[in-house]
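Section handout 9: paired folding examples.
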Amino acid sequence: MTNAAVLFALLAQIALTLSLYPLLLKRKKAARAAGLVDEQRAPLDDDAWPAPVRQVNNCISNQFASPMLFYVLLLTLFITASVNLFTLVLAWAYVASRAAHAWVHVHSNYVPLRRNLFAGGLLMLIALAVQLFIALL
């Protein structure tokens, strides 16, 4: 196992984020075609769009919240050559939790499940932070 192996999990998280944009464009196009958009307010107000568009838009916004900590932690573990099997397992589990969270967010949007998936990912970030702390000692 090489230190760089962890970067594949980082790239997977980036791919997840980017994969949401075509869905957003598709939903925006459908909403416009159905006349469900308040075109005067749409450039500045998210609530000018119907719920399916806001779901994806909010999901994309969520990909720029806790994943930023994920990027920093992974890159710092990588730079300090502190990557091990535990790091890889946590990193891929985090990406899987974010993918599941995104799936729920843009489909059923069932908040109790979303909350649990978010909490699971957060625990993985905490574990990565503890691992980094120990590595730096």
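Moving on to protein 2 of 2.
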Amino acid sequence: MTRHQYTTTVRWTGDQGAGTASYRGYSRAHDVTADGRPVLAASSDPAFRGEADRWNPELLFVAALSECHLLQYLHLCAVAGVVVTGYEDTAGGTLELTPDGGGAFTEVVLRPVVTVADASMVEQAVALHERAHELCFLASSVRMPVRHEPTVTAG
């Protein structure tokens, strides 16, 4: 088995002079970094006193699942001779909160709209979504369902 390590740094930038002395007295702003990559300006979701113009963990989680599926899918298509000429996924996740302040995602739905080079490729292009889901590193790592509802057309 091959093993890969991933390292990121999350640095809180939201101290407004009094730290976390009060719940409303600090910003949830933080930066996410990794060597050689641009900084992601992040915060919590606005529902949790975050800043709407910054990425939040929930959006990044849904985006990461969508990206993982995309990359596995494109690989499988290339190997199978299915020529993808367009791919766009508007993914959505459902987070349910618990009375104690916790919560969990109950599902993420991927809705990739795929264009392939020829109509003869559509059936196989649809089928490869299932295999991409099985191979996605992140979908294999979460306990809630990650569904996909693909649309494939020839362009």
